[in-house]
UniProtKB/TrEMBL annotation:
Pathway: Amino-acid biosynthesis; L-lysine biosynthesis via DAP pathway; (S)-tetrahydrodipicolinate from L-aspartate: step 4/4. The gene is dapB. One of its GO terms (molecular function) is 4-hydroxy-tetrahydrodipicolinate reductase. The keyword tRNA-binding does not apply. Residues 130-266 form the Dihydrodipicolinate reductase C-terminal domain. This is 4-hydroxy-tetrahydrodipicolinate reductase. Homotetramer. The active site is at 157 (proton donor/acceptor), 161 (proton donor). NAD(+) binds at residues 11-16, 37, 100-102, 124-127. (S)-2,3,4,5-tetrahydrodipicolinate binds at residues 158, 167-168. It is an enzyme of class 1 (oxidoreductase). It catalyses: (S)-2,3,4,5-tetrahydrodipicolinate + NAD(+) + H2O = (2S,4S)-4-hydroxy-2,3,4,5-tetrahydrodipicolinate + NADH + H(+); (S)-2,3,4,5-tetrahydrodipicolinate + NADP(+) + H2O = (2S,4S)-4-hydroxy-2,3,4,5-tetrahydrodipicolinate + NADPH + H(+).
Length: 271
């Protein structure tokens, strides 16, 4: 076994933050060396293990990005503004940055170009193996079918999710658009209300359901006269995202600076 990868987790008290801490604790290939939370959070200054309701872990929760200096990679599932700040700091410290945060605008994503020239950035709206396979399947099916097949993407998430459509739905929409040889920005249909008129041919529609504790469900529907094809992914446990993020962090070792995604990590880019 090689040297353990030294990892920092941001937003450590969040749903994904906690899941990442547990996933890293279960790995013999990585060790948690830093845990970040927002300034003023009541976990700051406390031992992470105790704050999570267990035994002391030796890692103190901090709001100081100086912890990056002692790490190999940062795993970040927080919010767009925070992620941009972490990206600048990770680039300065030359540590890899694994980004799961969704809801970033095109302008915010473009702000990652400069940090990606200095360090490795892996960003994906969904880190699970299943969804990344679904992305490739969606591209293939969209390429095989003509525009008589209306493409609709339906996603469902828990009632605390703040962004819509989900990052995954947008990944699937991009894949469908690519397969069909169009651009999502021109063809997406994201809001229907009132007298909308008949569906415009060629559009890629999005529907977002929010309720209860749904972890994450995505359907890509290809609907034509007389038949429908539905590709579906259901995440029933957040550990699938955390395992993917850890895989991505381990993968960054020795890679040249640049912007990568989970298809690169999983070796699915050329399929
Ligand atoms: N790519 C993927 O595979 C997945 C992506 N996600 C995405 O990850 C993100 C987080 O999801 P989830 O864990 O459910 O959300 P939570 O709200 O549970 O957690 C977010 C964490 O980030 C912290 N945070 C927010 N803003 C800042 C800031 N400015 N500085 C420091 N910390 C900050 C929050 O702190 P506070 O509570 O104080 O605001 C909180 O601890 C979302 O964008 C979600 O869509 C989620 C699952 C999978
Ligand atoms: O916020 C979530 O929970 C999730 N967010 C990601 C997204 O926006 O697609 C991934 C997953 O579906 C869970």
């Amino acid at each position: 076994m090689g040297e353990q990868m030294r990892l920092v987790v941001t937003g450590v008290s969040g749903r994904m933050g906690r899941m990442l801490v547990e996933t890293i604790a279960g790995s013999d290939r990585a060790v948690l060396t830093g845990a970040l939370e927002r300034s003023g959070h009541d976990w700051i200054g406390r031992d992470l293990g105790a704050a999570m309701g267990g035994a002391d872990s030796g890692v103190i929760v901090s709001d100081d990005l100086a912890v990056f200096a002692d790490a190999d990679a940062v795993i970040d599932f927080t919010a767009p503004a925070a992620t941009l700040r972490f990206a600048r700091a990770a680039a300065k410290a030359r540590v890899a940055h694994v980004i799961g945060t969704t809801g970033m605008t095109a302008e915010e994503i473009a702000q990652l170009d400069s940090p990606a020239r200095q360090t490795v950035i892996v960003r994906a709206g969904n880190m699970s193996l299943g969804v990344n396979l679904l992305v490739q399947l969606t591209k293939r099916v969209a390429a095989a079918l003509d525009a008589d097949y209306d493409i609709e993407i339906i996603e469902a998430h828990h009632n605390q999710k703040v962004d819509a459509p989900s990052g995954t739905a947008l990944m699937l929409g991009e894949a469908a658009a690519e397969g069909r040889g169009v651009t999502l920005a021109e063809m997406s249909d994201r809001a229907r209300d009132g007298i909308t008129g008949a569906r415009e041919p060629g559009r890629i529609g999005f529907t977002a359901i929010r309720g209860g504790d749904i972890v994450g469900e995505h359907d890509v529907m290809f609907a034509a006269a007389g038949e429908r094809i539905i590709l579906r992914h259901v995440a029933s446990d957040r550990s699938v995202f955390a395992r993917g993020a850890l895989k991505a962090a381990l993968w960054t070792r020795g890679k040249a600076p640049g912007a990568y995604d989970m298809l690169d990590v999983l070796g699915l880019s050329e399929q």
